[in-house]
Design brief:
This protein has 548 residues and is mostly helical. The protein has helices at 24-35, 56-74, 101-106, 125-139, 150-155, 159-167, 169-177, 240-251, 260-263, 268-280, 312-316, 321-329, 344-359, 367-380, 400-409, 414-420, 428-447, 470-481, 490-503, 508-520, 528-535, 537-545, and strands spanning 41-48, 78-85, 145-148, 191-193, 203-209, 213-218, 223-228, 236-238, 258-259, 289-290, 293-296, 337-340.
């Protein structure tokens, strides 16, 4: 089992108990500290069953907890942040798009941790998906303590919790029946048993003899067995609706979110609250519901899953870790949304950059707006971004749209693109932020950007074209060759270009189409003044001059 003693906390401004809660995670932390005023250490939990691809919706659970962990830490509290892999669940269904389907079919009903990895790389089916997600999660600088639940179950760690549940089974049945249209059958038990020989849960409880003896029949093996819950590898676990509150009690969980499927009236959280009170005499954890996360703009590039779900790793191919954190930090968890892979990627990066400028006092905002944006930034930033506690005088940003244009000018050559931003790359963090964003920008251009956004420069070997506006184009060439033009601002150069169009009585749309056709063989392109400056006015002049 991979363990980290405490959750990693990124440096940020201290939030005192007296500071008003600004962000929803601060509200949750405030509620926890008010509920437990003498408590100095809190346990925050999350987890899923690795029954298949771990998608971006699952990431919403872990980052929801990460924000509350940070909010508690900012209040001076110690926090244990645990993430449970429910890999002692039975393997019930073979997901689509996986290899070795026949082998997987043969392993149905076994614990996920005992099913072989269909890719032949990891120790088990569960381990394959666990390792994929954990590797991606490190990029976001979220470091929980991972618990592979097959290990404590198989080691007998939950033996007393199982016995407590069986001893109070009548009370559990009463709780569950209150949320059912039909009562549970008389044969119902809170136990799930994996056969000691075939390891499948196709078993039937014959009898439980206190304090710990379980007698059961395995249907596939057609045999009867007897095991003790107190012994390792007993193969006995609790059903989900009982297992969840049992672990709340065992791990002393103070906060854990859940999805819509757990949050309805009579759902697993509701019944878990009643069960943990009735059986383990403990109050349930504070709960936050989170909603669905999907993806839009994937086009023909489908995910490895069916539908429009994506993995955390796929999202991180397009979004910097800090930007992905911002996407979640800037939304309340109970609102659903889609992560963009289309042109809205540009807006997402622009909005994140604006939050950064406000938080670092590079852009003015009224006090309420400043405080809110700064708090979102605190939850979003990663180690390559400066702390809002000590904002720096100058901060290099690389606007995503502009960066995409420079990359396309250099045909994706990141080193040549870097030379354009050389004056801004003053620290190793500047370098890291540039490379992080440039890599993702080129990935987006090549795989997701719409055709109208893409361009490539006409090579100098192309034959000269004939312009419809030779006088105006000639004046543009003269302007671009004029000493000092290279140092003009985008607005100043745009103003001079409009003066040329006006003096030659040419409609802007027609003139722009003419220049774009000369430069990129298309009738549209990036903002012309910005594009000419990015291209280099001398180089642009030579390319345009060939059309005269």
């Amino acid at each position: 089992m991979q363990k980290t003693p405490t959750a990693t906390h990124r440096p940020g401004p201290q939030v005192t108990e007296e500071t008003p809660a600004i962000h929803w995670a601060d509200h949750a932390a405030a509620e926890l500290t008010e509920k437990h005023p003498e408590q100095t250490r809190f346990v925050c939990a999350s987890g899923i069953s690795p029954s298949g691809m771990v998608h971006i919706g699952n990431f919403r659970e872990v980052i929801t907890v990460a924000f509350v962990v940070q909010a508690l830490k900012d209040r001076g509290k110690s926090v244990r942040f645990i993430y449970s892999w429910d890999d002692y669940d039975a393997f019930r269904k073979v997901p689509v798009n996986l290899p070795e389907k026949e082998m997987l079919e043969k392993n149905l009903r076994k614990p996920l941790s005992l099913v072989p990895d269909p890719y032949g790389k990891a120790a088990s089916y569960a381990a394959h998906f666990e390792q994929e997600f954990e590797t991606s999660l490190k990029q976001t600088e979220i470091h929980p303590e991972f618990i592979r639940q097959n290990e404590p179950y198989r080691a007998g760690t939950y033996a007393q919790g199982i016995k407590d549940a069986v001893a109070n089974e009548k009370a559990i049945i009463e709780v569950l029946n209150r949320s059912r249209t039909e009562p549970l059958p008389s044969s119902w038990t809170c136990l799930s048993i994996f056969c000691k020989e075939c390891h499948r849960d196709a078993t039937e409880l014959i009898k439980f003899e206190a304090p710990s003896t379980v007698k059961y029949k395995c249907k596939p093996c057609k045999k009867e067995f007897e095991v003790s819950i107190d012994e390792p590898e007993a193969g006995v676990k609790l059903l989900w609706r009982v297992d969840w509150p049992m672990r709340w009690a065992k791990e002393k969980v103070d906060f854990e979110p859940g999805g819509k499927d757990h949050s309805s009236q009579g759902g697993s959280y509701d019944t878990g609250c009643e069960i943990v009170r009735a059986v383990w005499k403990r109050e349930p954890p504070l709960y936050v519901q989170y909603d669905f996360v999907l993806a839009k703009g994937l086009g023909s590039k489908l995910s490895s899953s069916s539908g429009n779900l994506i993995t955390l790793d796929e999202a991180l191919e397009i979004y910097e870790p800090a930007v992905l954190r911002w996407i979640f930090a800037s939304r309340k968890p109970n609102l659903d949304f889609s992560i963009a892979f289309d042109l809205d990627v540009l807006k997402t990066y622009d909005d994140f950059d604006r939050t950064t400028r406000i938080a670092l006092k590079q852009e003015q905002a009224e006090e309420k707006k400043f405080n809110y944006e700064k708090r979102i930034y605190d939850f979003s930033k990663t180690s390559i971004y400066p702390s809002s506690k000590n904002p720096i005088d100058t901060f290099a940003q690389f606007p995503f749209r502009h960066l995409c244009n420079i990359l396309q000018i250099h045909q994706g050559d990141i080193e040549k693109t870097k030379s354009f931003y050389a004056a801004s790359l003053k620290t190793k963090e500047d370098q890291a932020r540039f490379e992080s964003r440039a890599t993702r920008a080129w990935k987006w251009i090549t795989e997701f950007a719409p055709p109208e956004f893409k361009f490539s420069l006409r090579t100098e070997a192309n034959p000269a074209s004939t312009t419809k506006f030779p006088a105006a184009v000639g004046e543009l060439v003269t302007l671009l060759k004029t000493p000092g033009t290279e140092g003009l601002s985008e607005d100043d150069l745009a103003g001079k270009i409009f003066t040329i169009m006006k003096s030659n009585q040419i409609e802007p749309k027609a003139f722009f189409q003419e220049v774009y056709t000369i430069l990129v063989s298309k009738t549209s392109g990036p903002k012309l003044a910005s594009f000419l400056l990015a291209l280099g006015t001398e180089r642009a002049a030579k390319m345009i001059e060939k059309s005269l």
